[in-house]
Each structure stands twice: as C-alpha cells, then as structure tokens.
Amino acid sequence: MKILVLVVVVLMGSAVQAQTVSETLIRNATVLTVTRGTLTNTDVLIRNGKIAAVGKNLNASANARVIDATGKFVMPGIIDCHSHSMLDATNEGTLAVTSMVRTQDVLDPTDGNLYRALAGGVTTLNLLHGSANPIGGLNSVVKLKYGRPASEFLFPGAMPGIKFALGENVKRSSTPNQPGVTRRYPNTRMGVEEVIRDAFTRARDYKRAWDEYRAASAKDKNVIPPRRDLQLEPLVEILEGRRYVHAHCYIVSEILMLINLADEFGFKIKTFQHVLEGYKVAKEIAAHGAGASIFADSWGYKIEAYDAIPYAAAIMTRAGVVVSMNSDSDERARRLNIEAAKAMHWGDLTEEQALKTITLNPAIQLGIQERVGSIEVGKDADVAIWNGHPFSVYSRVETTFIDGTVFFDRQQDLARRSERAKERATLEQADPNKPPARGQSPATPRRRPPTHEGGEIEQEEERP
Amino acid sequence: MKILLTICLICVPVLAQQIGNPTSQQGVTPPRGVFAIRNARIVTVSGADIENGTVVIRDGKIEAVGTNVNVPAGAQSIDGRGLSVYPGMIDAGTNMGLVEVPQGANGTVDTAEVGDLNPNAKAITAVNPHSAHIAVTRVEGITNTLTAPTGGLISGQAALINLIGTAPKEMAVVPQFALVINYPRIGGGGGGFGGFQQPVNLSDTLANNERQLEQIRKMLRDAEAYGRALDAYAKDKTLPRPDRNVVLEPLVPYVRGQQPVIFRADREAEIRGALKFAEEMKLKPIILGGNDAWKVATLLKEKNVPVILTGLFSLPPREDDAYDALYENPSRLQQAGVRFCISTGDAGAEVRNLPQYAGMAAAFGLSKADALKAVTLYPAQILNVSDRLGAIEAGKMANLVVTDGDLLEIRTRIRYLFIDGRPVVLSSRHTELNDAFKNRK
Amino acid sequence: MPKVHPRRIVALFCTVALAAVCAVRETHAQRTAVETYAITNARIVTVSGPIIDRGTVVIRNGLIAAAGANVSPPPDARVIDGSGLTVYPGLIDSYTNLAVPEPSPGPSPAGGGGGGFFLAQQQRPATGGPNSTQPAGLQPEVMVEDVIRPSGTEIESSRSIGITTALTAPRSGVWMGQSALINLAGDTPQQMIVRSPVAMHVSFTPLRGGYPGSLMGVFSALRQMMLDAQRYRESMQIYERNPRGLRRPEVDRSLAALVPVVAGQMPVVMLANTEREISRALDLAAEFKLRLIIAGGRESDRVADRLKQQNVPVLLSLNLPRRTTAAMPEADPETMRVLRSRVEAQQTAGKLAKAGVRFAFQSGSLANISDLMLNASRVIENGLSSADAVRAFTIWPAEILGVSNQLGSIEAGKIANLTVTRGDLFDRNRTVAHVFIDGRPVDLRPPTDRQGDRPGGRPSLSGPWSLNVKLGPEEKTAALTLQQEGERVTGSIAGSLGAGEISNASMTADEVRFTVSLQIEGQTKEATFTGTLSGNEIRGSVTVVGAAPGTFTATRVRPN
Questions:
Q1: φ and ψ at C276, to 5 degrees?
Q2: Mapping DSSP to helix (H, G, I), strand (E, B) and coil, where does residue A239 land?
Q3: Is there a contact between B138 and B417 (Cβ–Cβ < 8 Å)?
Q4: Which end of chain A, N or C, is less packed with Cβ atoms under 10 Å?
Q5: Residue closest to C343 by CA, chosen among A418, A435, A428, A463
Q6: What is the C-alpha to C-alpha distance for residues A166 and A277, in angstroms, rounded to an integer?
Q7: Do both A378 and A366 map to the same domain?
Q8: Would you say residue A430 lies in a domain?
Q9: CATH no. for residue A332?
Q10: Does B143 fall in a domain?
C-alpha cells in the first residue's frame, strides 16, 4: 500500500495546529529502539497515541497517514531532565526552604522556546525550580504539547519530585554584601547541610504530630488538628518514598554530604543534577542508587565546575550509575542529540549507552519509563523522525510526534512562513496596532547574553 | 639523534598517561622535527582531497603534499592508513587564554580593562599559555584562535595565536591583528544582578549610542593627526617633536586602513551602523557576531566586509524569528556571496566544540565542504593568514590534525596533532583527571 | 381650580418664593431644598424592560419614584425637559481604586539585589492593618471602607462621563483586602457607601523584599492562608463548643477575615488577564470552592467554557491595549503575540456574550477615563450588541456585585442614579447632560485630561525643582529643571553643584532616574540619582563615581 497521503493542515495562530490523525505509519526507516537495538528498513505503526507495532512491511488501515521514511532515522522523543522552560517564575529565593512552592502553579504553555525544543526532537521536560535554595520547590514533568493549555502538558503518572540545591548558587557566592542587608543563611556548605537537616527534623516531628492527632481524634472529637504545613508535607512525602529528590550539586564534599544525610533520614536521592565531580565518587553514587543528570562537557564557568571533565558520563555509567544528559538551557535543549553523542567521543560508551542518556535513562530518573524512553509496542508514541543519524552533526529533525500527534514538522514550518508574513502585514494595519502620530519611544529590545556562560543561568522572572 | 627523537616521541605520550601533575603538558613546547604522514586521505580544503597521500613536515612547515612525494631520510613516519589529515581549525571569535574561571575567580579574568577607550590593551600581553583551556581545546583539533579583549568601546587589540607555546610570544602568529570595537548596542542590558542604569527606551539608547560613537570618532581623529605629526617630524626634525602617546600610537595603522578593525555587532541596525562608521572613518571593517547578517547580506557583499559568525548556537533574537534563523545564517551568506567564517564566540571552555557549530550550518543548507572551509580556509582568509594557515599546501605552517574520520563529526577521534610543525601530545587537564579517576574502586 | 383661602395662597407663594430663592446652585450633591425631580419627554432606557421612546422619570427622596410613558411630573418636582435626551440607569464601573488614597512612598530598596527575582514585584502596601499576624500585602482584613475619602479629581472625571457608582478596592497586596461599592457623590464616606464589604480581592503580583517574592510563592502563600483559615474556623468551633482541656487558639484577624471567603460566602475577585492567569485562578477557586470573580479578563473568551461551568463572572476591562510607541526603523517589529492580542481584546466581550458568560465592564486603570466610552464603542463594533453593552454597564454589574435590588435599572424603588445623555450612550459625539446620584444632580466638570501620556496617570515631572543633595556631612542645593514627554525625561541642573545636562533619564511608574555630572570639591564626578515621586517631591539615593553614596530630595518649586 504505497499511497502517500499528505494531510494539509489549516493553521491558525502561532502554534502548529496539531493534527489529530488516529493512525500513522512510518515506513522503511532505521529505527533506534534503544532497548532492542537498531532495526533497519523497519516500519513503526502508531495508533491512538501509542506505538502499535514495530516491524517490516506492516499493514495500516486505509485512512492512515503514511510517511515514507526511507533513508531516515526514528528515535524516541528526547527527555530533558533539567529545564526551566515555560515557567513564569523560576526561583522563590526569599527563603532557604521553599518546598511549598510549585512549578505547576506557574506554567506558561505559550513559551516559544518549547517549539524550538520540539524542532530538536525533545518531547518531555522536567521543569525544575531554580538553584537559589537548599530546598527548593516542586517540579513538573511535562510533554511539550505546544498549542494546548497547560493542563494537557502534565505527564500522567509521573512521580512527583522536588528540587534541592547545594553549593555556590545557594550560598549566593557571587552576590556581594550589601550595606545594611543581612545575608541570607546559609553562607557556607556547612550551613547548607544544617538547613536541610533542620527541615527534615521538623518534617519528622510534623508527621508524628499528625499521626498522634489521627489516633487521638478517633477516640475524642474535642481535639484541634495540627496546622497543615505545605512546606513540610512534601518533605514527609520524601521520607515516605513518595517524592523524588533532584539535587543540584557540583563537588565531592556536598555530594557525599547529601548521601550521608539521606541515609541518616532513611530516604534516597533520585538524581544528582549537574554533579560535575560525580565521576570522582561514582561508586558512592552508584551504591546509594542515585542517578546523575549532567552536562556533556560544560566546565570551568565557576570554581565548583573547574574539575568537570567530559568523560564523566562514561565513568559513571561504567560504575553503574544511571546517567542522563540535560540542557538546563532553552538553547542547549535544541541539540541534546549532539550532547548525547559526546558520550561516545569521550570515554567510548556504545551507541546504545549514549542514546539512553537522552531517552531511557531520563525516563527512569523521572519514573516514566513504563510509558516513554524507547520504541516498544505499547509505549506512548513520542518519537521523532530525523533526516540522518541523530548523532551526526549534519542531521536535523523532520517531524516530532507526541502521543501520536505531530507537534513539529519542518515542511509545515517552511510552508507556513509566507502565511505568517501575510498575517503580520494584515495585523499591522489593524486600528489598535497602528503607531500613533506622536508616540512614545519604543523600548530598547532585550539583548540575550551569549549562551556560553554554561550551566545554570539564573533566569530573570519575566512578565509578558 | 634520530633514535633519541623516536624514543622521545614514544615516551612522551606514555609519560603523559601516568597519573601525575595534572598540568604536566600545559605550556610545554615540544621541539620541531621532520615527520611524514603516509598513506592517508589528505583533505587539503583548498583543492581536491588526495586519497592515499603523504604530507611531509619539516622545520615547522608543510614541505610537501601529494601522492608521490619525496620523504626525507630520517623523517618520523606516521602510518596514515584509514586516517585523514586536515588543516587545524581556526576559531576567530574567542577570548582564549584571557580568562580561566569567569565566575568567582576574578584574579583569572583579564578580558576587559577599565574605561571605554583602550586601544593599547593588547590581548597578546595577557594570554596565559598555561591555561587549562588551551590544551583542552587543541586536543580536539582547533590549532588557532583569534583572542580578543572585551569591554568598553575600544576594547583593545586582538591576537592570532597558535595553541602551543610556553610564552605568549611563542604562541603569537599575528600579535596585533585587529583593533576591536564594540559597536554601541541597540539591545538593552543582558539582565543579571545589580541595577546599573540602562536607558529604557530606544530614543535614549540611540542618543546614547551616538554620543559613544562620537567618543570613538574623536579618538580616531586624534590618532590620525598624531600619526601625521609623527611622520612630519620624521621627515623634518626642525618641527617640534611630538610627545609620544602610548594610547594613540597603536591606533595609527588602523586609522590608515592598513590593518583591520573588528566591530562587534549583531543587530541589523548595529551592522549597518558599523559599516557606515567604518566607511566614514576609512577603516577596514570585519563584523564579529553577525546574528542579523543575513538581513544585511547585500550591503555586506557590496562593501566586501567579512563576518565572523558567533551565533550558531544562540537562540534566535526575536520571538517570531524562524526556529532555524541562526542555523541558516551561513548558508544564506554563502548564497549571497558574503565572506564569512564560523566561530563559537566563546571565552575558552566551549571553543573545542567548534566542529559542531560548523556541522549545524551544514545541517541547515551549507554544503559539508563549505562548512569545513568555514572553520579552516575562510577564517584564515579573513585573518589575512591564508598564506600560512587554513589549508594543506606546501609552504604553509604545519598545523595539522590527523583523524579517523570526518573532522566535523563528534564520533571522530583525533589521532595526531601538529602545531607549528611540532607534535602535540594529546593530553589535557581533562584526560589526566579521567585517567586519575576512571578506575577508582 | 378649587377655592383656596387667601392666606394659604400667600403662604404657598412665600414657600415657593423662598424655595426659589434658596434653590441652590447645582454644585456637587449639596442638599437642595427641592428633593423631587422629573425628567420629562425623554427617551428612557430602563434596561429592565423595553425602551420607552418618550416618557418621564420621577425622582423623590433619593429613589426612583416612577418611570414610564404615562407618568406625569408631580407638582413639587423640578422639571427637566428631556427632549432629545436619553435617560440610562447610572453607569457602574465594576473595578476601580476611586476614593482610595495613594500610598506615601516607602524607601526604595538598594540597588538591584541578587537572585534574579527583582522584576515585576510590588512595593508592600504602606498601610497595613493594626495588630496583624501577617506582613503588609497579606492582610485580607484591610477594608477599603476604612480609608476612602470623598471627592477628588478622579471621582469628578468618572462622574462627568456618566459613571455614578464604582466598585473600589484596595490598591496593592497579594491579599489586597475588601472592596466597597460606592456612589460617586457624598460628603462623607458613609454617604458614599452603597455596600461594604463586597468582595475579597487578590492580585498575583509578588511582594518586594520578602516572601512571597515570586509568582510561585504567591500561590503557595494564598493556599497556606486559606488552609489556615479553614483550620481557624474549625478550631474556633471546637473551642467554642467546649474549651475545657484545650489550649485556646489565638485570635487572628487575618484568618478571621478569610473565613467567609473559604466558606464560599464572600466572593473573591482575582486579577487575571491572560488565558493561563485565568486558568490558574479557576484552578485555585475550584481547589478551595471559592466564589470567584475574574477582574481584567482580556483573554477570558478562550476559557469561556470553564467560566460558564464554574459560574464565574468577569469584570471585563475596557482598558483595551493599543500601540503607544512611535514607529522607528531601529526598533524590533512588534511580536505577533502582541499584535494579535490587541485585535482580539476588542472581540472578547462579544464572544463572552455569545458563550453566555456573565460579565460587566470596568475601566481597568485607564489613564484617560474618557476613553472608556470610546473603547466601549470599539467593543460594539467588534461583536457585542449595543443593548448588551448597556447591560454590561448597568444591570449585569449590579447582579454580579449583589445590588440588583438597588441599582442597575430604572424601576420604581431603586436608588435614583441616572445618566442622562444627549445622543446614544456609545455614540462618539454624545455628551452627558445630567448625572443624578442618590437622587441629586451632580456638578459635571470636563474630565481632567491628565497631562501628557504618562504611565499610570501620574503627575508630570516637567517644571523647576529645588534639589537638595546630602553627601556625607555636606548638604548642597541646586536648581533642577525637568521636561517630561511620556517616559522621556530631559533636563539640566545649575547652582552650587555645577551646571549641565542630565542624561539617561527616565520615569517608570513612580520611579525617577537620571545621571548628571556634578562639581564636588573642585572635581567633576558623575552621579546617578534614583528616587520615587510622590506628589511634589522626589526622594531617593544618589551614587557618585569615586565617592560615597548619598541621598537627595527634590521639591517642586511651584506645586501643581
């Protein structure tokens, strides 16, 4: 059935009007399954948002959309384990413990950088609170359904998580003392530990108080309940193993500090983020069972990053740590395929091991590996079609699917450009958009700082 | 002697692998010698590839290239079967060697001098040959960088360096290549912490920019007059002797158009402004940055002004820009006939990723051959050193990279490296830390 | 004519003459001896029924006594000939800060601070409640009825375009406090207040200088306080039932003020304009079963389904976005997002009406209140029916704000607030002939066009100022002259600190900045002034290159 059906999408507005086609057949591609090797001349059948079949010469129903992917590559959608995209606020930096704040309250689904990430093959993000506080806010795991309302982005069944941060950003090392202003505690790595220890101690007491109240009120209605404390409840969840901890850290002393503290309180760190010296203590990280979500090769931008080496992924992987490559940047998120390839260049990981760093491994780190992270029958149809091997610098994404729906297609993007130009011309003629005869001066356009500052760029909170 | 050299050649890499002082190789200048890379694929860049060829290196230069070359007696032989030889890559838009750790270690930051007008700040003076960034970068096949100061209006003078040497003089290929001017920016503050005053509206910004241009203009005119006074005195000693002026003196060759002036400019209005200013002041401009260069391609071609593109890995500047606007920049310039090269634009740590920037340009319209040129021949031409660098031809400096595959691809490995005809040990701070920790039990 | 005793005639004549003599000029809403009015031969838009082409409205004792085609003016009424005039119910502006005094400026925070969370924050309200457990900005117990002041140019401006009643709310805070519905006439707050409190008000703008300093923190702070209020109610009930054996819960006026909110009795007005802001407000309201009202609502049509389903009305701002900047070649083109948003904002009301979502108009801090009707006519051109537009200014806000038995239509027994126009209400050439509030005509002055094009309608900086600079132990005075056009500020100084032009000057909101070279101890030093404008004074700090920082005060030489 070699009928090539092209669905022409009528587009309105800035987003690609996602095509809701219930069945798509991708034919004759090289399929990087991640878990079952690389399959050549293979078809992938997508039905009702799931991967329905993977194999040679598959049949599809008559109204399926068929894509001829001869010479092309299909891989799972990339999962970025450290992002601050689509957030109207990144940090609640006023207090050292802000576990009550939630990224989910500030999602901005209209962030244009989401589209740019889709164009780089990314389908899922872990949206984290910034690194201003030892204990930060709650995360959100999202699928990049650009064009839909924020509620549709939330990844169903993803394990809830929280952000911790250690080191220079938390100590505000780069911020000079201001006269008359007391520096926020903690100012040293010693204090960072104490803040976390104190918070978990209070959380334990809080849990006990509620357990006691429940027991007491079963017998006697004349008891006043303890105060519900939104700051402590997520910490109780951590103690009970119901919330993942993603901890930003760099150097050996703080990595081991947090492992010891977690062991002391009886919980596990799910991932260390950045953890650029993690290669020095790979065995301790592996023994604890934590994953590592790192930069492929960023280094040297601050003192705590000076010992970072690009071999870290290989060293930690061989020690048994689940390693993912992340972006922590709207810019780098567009080319995580290149970042993963670096794991082959530095340290000789195999192609499959390197592929896992942007697919299955981050899925495991976020608790979503049952649904995404590889191309297997039954998993969500979050896949991308590339015009070459994703690890080649010469490759780019042709189409990105999430739950079987196209959210990026290069040909559609190109075709839309002249329409957008026309739409702009029309809009600029509308009455409210005409410049007044005597108007104010426009604002100076914002200039982006160069992207090579590496690592954690503290993001300003911006209002539209 | 030959045997000793051979032993040294074998021992040095071995020694480097041992766990020792992590900075053992930084700043060490290996001696020149005579080498022959045989039976390799030679990607000359300036001409056709030579399958199964030989390159002979002697006294720092490429002595011969071809299928049938005469290998001198006593030359160290490198078996190039299955390997490729490329010219070393050149990044024309860096601050390499001027900064070690930008955040939190101000003692290691030497990029920007105080004040707005610093033509006499010479990058070559402050380049640190022992910076960890140097070895980390060259082992990935980048053999040369243009290192420029930053800050102010006239930042200083940029230096073209080899990434090898114990002293800055040993590194210098062209110690004072270009004057560097930050064309007054239209884009407002890059954010960050601490509120220094920024004009909020565009009229004020433009008025401010005009004032800044006037400052530059005045200094350039002063320098031009100073130069004439010096010349006049040289011819006629009866005239009053002009006092030497260390600030104006370095400007003289630039205001006479004898050497190029690099303008940092990204937006269309900035690029146009820079071109206009250069024409007015009779300077030889090069644009550094060039994010909007594709919008100004016609003018750039007309004025024959080259562009060092640094924004390949930047987000498009405007919300409504096409997602690949910056990826496609090189391809559009190529089509319009504008001279350009590709740079990381980075201070140091990221420069080793230059091949990926070129690769991205090739993913979005530039041919693979042109992408390779964009990091070899084109920067050499723009930096006026194409007689020495940027291609594999007899007579040029022996800056060569030997790989097991396509130089721009990530999975390719560098096998051998020569800078100035010297064999460079492929170790760096990173390889040494790797060796120290990879087997920790 | 019946036979009347002569003495009675004389008495009647004297009374009438006396009344005529005492008939007071129509200034403000002073008590006149005559409390009865009749507007005759007018077109009457009752809103509650069909339009009456020619009829009479009778006002007595502050209330509408009668309205209809067959109503005759009573003998004691002052008659106003309504030929060519149209009588509407007094217009209601459903969200303002009218009569709420502006705060005196607090100290501006030093520098930009670190941490990257300094943008888009509000100064904490200066007036907090006494003895509160919460910091200013998180005090729901603040009530606007405690602070409103009658009269003022803003009130007069609103009245003169036909607004008789306004919801007025506190100006700032996260929990901003409780609003009141006021008539725009009266000599005392008590005379103005129609209903108080009306609703609790929430804004999602983080506070400066403390928690919550980010939008995330705002949601968490709101959530935590509502949980605390629920517990407060429960604790108080348990304790009241039987205090024996229990530690007494502490009295907390902030939480007490929230109890009616979490009980669903007092509505909550939340400021939200974009689709996501409105969605977040809806989510929060659903979480705590709040009676939500959205204020702003620019993109509310995109979530019309949810608004309908959760029964949430919208106080729709008529501060329609328009381009204010001149064209400049060096400027970036405006974003598609903004261009679309401006066009679509005009269509929101029509779409809400079609979707069956309840809404009312508000002025939304329009700098120029007379644009209110102009914008209403734009909205009508873009899909809203004229009749619905009238309703959105009258009966719909009355219903939403709980006063539909008192205001919003011309029916006997309702408060006599009337707007009488020459020409249709939304006609661009119409004029306001009369405004009645509480049954009394009010003085109509033309709306004061606030000078220039200033953000937020602040007074202009233009003019001479006396600048007093304190650097270390020394104080120096200089003459400062400023010219302001929009956000653009220029000027110069002269005097003991040297003479020169200022540069890099700007004014945003009430913050003023400029740079100038000063002569200090025989040297030229560049100084940057940053201060806050309040009335006729600018106060702030000055940083000097090469010297210690100081403070300054600038006072207008001839106050406005």
A1: -70, -35
A2: helix
A3: yes
A4: N
A5: A428
A6: 13
A7: no
A8: no
A9: 3.20.20.140
A10: yes
Is A123 in the same domain as A20?
A: no
Together in a domain, A110 and A61: no
* ipTM confidence: 0.92
Domain count, chain A: 2
CA distance C169 to chain A (A): 23
In a domain, B223, yes or no: yes
Domain ranges of chain C: 215-263, 267-324+335-400, 455-556
The distance from CA C266 to its chain's CA centroid, rounded to whole angstroms, is 20
A134, A235: one domain: yes
* CA-derived radius of gyration, chain C: 27
User: In the structure encoding, which two tokens stand for residue C132, read together?
Assistant: 């509160």
Whether A221 contacts chain B with CB within 8 A: no
Dihedral angle sign, alpha carbons of residues B161, B162, B168, B169:
negative
Taking CB atoms and an 8 Å cutoff, what residues of chain A touch B191? 446, 449, 460
Contact A300 B100 (CB under 8 A): yes
Looking at the structure, tell me whether residues A306 and A277 fall in a common domain.
yes
List the 148-167 stretch of A: residues with Cβ below 8 A of C.
149-151
On whether any CB of chain A is under 8 Å from the CB of C5, the answer is no
Does A195 fall in a domain?
A: yes
Range of the domain at A274: 78-175+183-372
Distance in Å, alpha carbon of C215 to nearest chain B alpha carbon: 19
**What CATH number is given for C455-556 in this structure?**
2.40.128.120
Span A160-201, pLDDT tens digits: 999 999 999 999 877 778 787 788 889 999 999 999 999 999
Tell me whether residues B358 and A301 touch, CB distance under 8 A. no
In 10 A of CB B211, how many CB atoms? 11
From chain B, pick out residues whose CB is under 8 angstroms from the CB of C339.
none
Q: How many helices (H) and strands (E) does chain A have?
A: 11, 17
Q: Smallest Cβ distance to B206: which of C330, C333, C505?
A: C330
- Residue A427 in any domain: the answer is no
Q: Which chain A residues contact residue C487 at CB under 8 A?
A: 440-441
- Match domain C267-324+335-400 to its CATH number in 2.60.40.60, 3.20.20.140, 3.90.1300.10, 2.50.20.10: 3.20.20.140
Of C116, C211, C326, the CB nearest to A95: C211
CA distances from A8 to A1, A234, A409, A415, C39 (A): 20, 47, 12, 10, 64
Task: Examine residue A455 and state whether it is found in any structural domain, yes or no.
Answer: no
Same domain, A21 and A138: no
Give contacts of C341 with chain A, Cβ < 8 Å: none
A291 & A330 share domain:
yes
Q: Is C487 on the interface with A (CB under 8 A)?
A: yes
CATH of the domain at B249: 3.20.20.140
CATH number for position A69: 2.30.40.10
Query: With contacts defined as CB-CB under 8 Å, which chain B residues touch C515?
Result: 197
| B255, B179 Cβ separation under 8 angstroms | no
A228 and A364 part of one domain: yes
Q: With an 8 Å Cβ cutoff, are C111 and B186 in contact?
A: no
Q: What is the spatial distance between Cα A19 and Cα A9, in angstroms, rounded to a whole number?
A: 7
pLDDT tens string, chain C, 560 residues long: the values are 455 566 766 666 555 555 554 444 444 444 555 689 999 999 999 999 999 999 999 999 999 999 999 999 999 999 999 999 999 999 999 999 999 998 766 554 433 333 333 345 676 665 556 788 999 999 999 999 999 999 788 999 999 999 999 999 999 999 999 999 999 999 999 999 999 999 999 999 999 888 999 999 999 999 999 999 999 999 999 999 999 988 899 999 999 999 999 999 999 999 999 999 999 999 999 999 999 999 999 999 999 999 999 999 999 999 999 999 988 888 889 999 999 999 999 999 999 999 999 999 999 889 899 899 999 999 999 999 999 999 999 999 999 999 999 999 999 999 999 999 999 999 989 999 999 999 999 988 766 554 443 444 456 788 888 888 988 778 888 888 888 866 668 888 888 888 888 877 877 667 888 888 888 877 778 888 988 887 788 888 888 877 778 889 998 876 54
Of B194, B269, B319, Cβ closest to residue C111: B194
Q: Are C285 and C164 in contact (CB under 8 A)?
A: no
**Which residue does chain B place closest to C507, by CA atoms?**
B200
Instruction: Tell me which chains share at least 3 CB pairs under 8 Å with chain B.
Output: A, C
